[in-house]
Amino acid sequence: MKKFSKIVLTIALFGFIVMTNAQKAQQEGVSIALDMKPILQMEITSPEQINFVFDEKSKYYSGIVKNAATIIKVTSTVKWDLYAVGRSKGTNPNGKTFWDQEESYSSTVNSVADIPLSLLEIKQNTSNSGANHQLGRYTDYSQDFSDGFRSNGGNSLYVSDNGTPSPPNKNGKYIAGHAGVSDDINNGYMNSGSYISKNGQGNDFMYVMDYRILPGFPAVFPNAFNADATVAENIVSSAKASSVLVGGAAQLGEKAYAEPGVYTMNVQYVLLEDQ
Hints:
This protein has helices at residues 2-22, 57-62, 235-241; strands at residues 40-45, 64-76, 80-87, 100-104, 111-112, 121-124, 193-194, 206-213, 257-258, 261-264, 266-273. It is an alpha+beta fold.
C-alpha cells in the first residue's frame, strides 16, 4: 500500500509540472481614441417664402398673422444663444435696414418706398429662460401681439444699425440666451442639450415662431421700433427723421405712407456659442 501511494504521488506531481510549463501567452494592445467635437446645430422647418398679401381694407387695419410658420430645433454641447435679425439685399438707396422694393404700383410725393425691416413682428411660443440679465424693456418675443390700436415694439424684429447679422446688445431681444460673457453668472446663456431629449413642445431647445405684419390705414406700420423698442421707426417717424424718405420735403412727414408695391426681406436666425 505504501509503494502504490508513492507511485500515484509521483505521477500527480509530474502532471502539474507539465501543465505549468505549457502556459505560454502573447499580449497585444489596441489604442482607443475618443474625439468629442463640440456640436452647435440648428434645424429649421419653414416655407421657403412666407407671403403677406394685403388686398382688403380689413387686412390693413387688423394685420395678417402667420401662425407656426417656422419651427426651430437646437442641439448643442456648448453654451449657446439664439437670435433673429432682419436682413435685406440693400437695393434701396437708403441702405440695408429697409425692405427691398421689387415693384412699385404707384408713387407720389408722400409715398415712401423705404419701409423699415423692423415692421415685421415675430412671436415665440416658449419664453427665453436664459436671459439672466438684460437692460432692455423686452427679453424676447414671447409677448402676445398687441391690438391694432396701440403701438408696441415688444415683437418688432431686431435689425442691426448697419444691416449686418451682428447680435443684439444687452438692450435687445434674444429668442434664447442673451448678450454677455458666459463666465459672468449675471449674463444670459443656454446650457447644452437637445430637442430630441425632451418630450413635446415648449422646451428650451425648440421654438415655434409666428409672424405678423400690421400696416394700419394708411399704411405706416405703427409697431416698427428700434432694437430696444424705445424709438419708433414707423413711416411717419422715419419720414420726419429723414426728409429724403419723403422726396426732400421734411414738412410732409405727417402725410407720409408706405408706397404700394411688392417688397421682400429675409429673417435670419443665428445660433452661436455663448462667449
